[in-house]
Amino acid sequence: MDLQERGLSPRIVPVDQLGVPTYDELVLVARRSTVNEHPEAIRAFIAALARGTSYASAHPPEAANALLSAGKGLDATQTRAEVSATLPLLAGQPGRPYGFMDPSEWRAYAEWMAEHGLISSAPPTSDVLTNELLPQR
Question: Which residue intervals of 39-75 are DSSP H helices?
Answer without folding.
Answer: 39-58, 60-70
